[in-house]
Request: fold
Amino acid sequence: MGEAGKTRRAFCCIIPSMARRRREKWSSDKNELWLTSAAVTLPFIFFIVLLGFMSSLVISSENLRLGNSVERAFSDVLVALQQTNEPVPVTMQNRDVKGFGYYTFNGSAIYRWGDAYAVLPFSLFTDDTSIYDTMISFDRESSRIECIRYAESITFDLQNIFRRTGDPLAMPDIIYLSFDASEFIDRLSISRFMIACSFIVVVIIYLILMKILRDNRRIRVTMRRQENLVSLGEAARTLTHEIKNPLSAITLQLAILKREVPPELLPDITMIDQEAERLRKLTNRVSEFLRNPIGQPEELDIVEETKKLLPLFHGEVRFVETSTPTAPVMFDREKLRSVLENLMKNAIEACEGMNVDVEVEVSAKGDGFFHVYVKDRGCGVRNEDRKRIFDPFFTTKINGSGIGLSISSQFLKAAGGSLKLYPRDGGGTVAEAVIPYHGTLMG
Reply:
């Protein structure tokens, strides 16, 4: 097998191998992202559910504690009324009661003290508020707990309870008590505050962990790109050794053959020469990708440099005049030319098989950057390819090398700019190159 055959075989083996490794890494990273996200999200959901359950227990515990306190206070007051001879007001004051009263079955007051109602509002008390034999009502606005109990469930000493002075009172149907609920409100507010803080802490921890995972993934992507560059460096060294020497010999022999072969064989020699030139350009672009992307910056005018390239495309690219007549930037001349030429060439190739409609526009939006738009009406970029469009050696073209956009993005980033592709309204693609201002912008 000749040197050219060995070179082609080496080249064909290196590139698919790198592409395969990228696909495997991408699939592995995607699976790892799902696993790590699930490993963080599932415990987060568990803790949220657990906090919800605990908050429900805390609220229920406070309510139960309130009910027990009311029941105990109610019982203490009734026991005191049954077992002592002290007047009702003294008994109520000793037990911290705000209101006390006896009522008939229809709510009319027989005896009332403090802030007890003249007519008992039964609507405040429902079966849902029942605690044992007592029904309670909690009024947050007045910080008051009210409770009633039917007298039939209580054993009374008529000579003690219902005789204070004069004739005995009528037998009551309902006993009413009201208590101060400020302590309960404070405890409930503190409990709810602590529960809310716990929820916030858990959410913050979850967001921090997800940010760490996202940053870690970004670092992994950067490391993967660096690994790709290392692999690319190894491939470039191999290609340089395997291609350049025999390519120089081929080019030299072709120059001799062009002078000596009959005219009828000249087209075949020219075709070989063109393919050899294409291979030489490919090796140069790979080497260019690995070299210092900053180069030798100098002050250039994007508008002027863009117009210089238009004749190379034989009228297929149209420059759109805007309100930005000049666009001074600091950029390496050859690298800026490479970026602009590559974007225009890609736009023309995207229109293959249809009418070529490519526009170039340079504008300044007042954000400190010039925006170079290269617009086409081609087939566009598939959504599944959009995330990998700037990866080295990724291409959807049959004869593409997959490094043009990678090189352009690398050059723009080195100059403080960026490159992005997105769909064009009405069909096609817009390639937007962003480059920082330099000097004074002339309007």
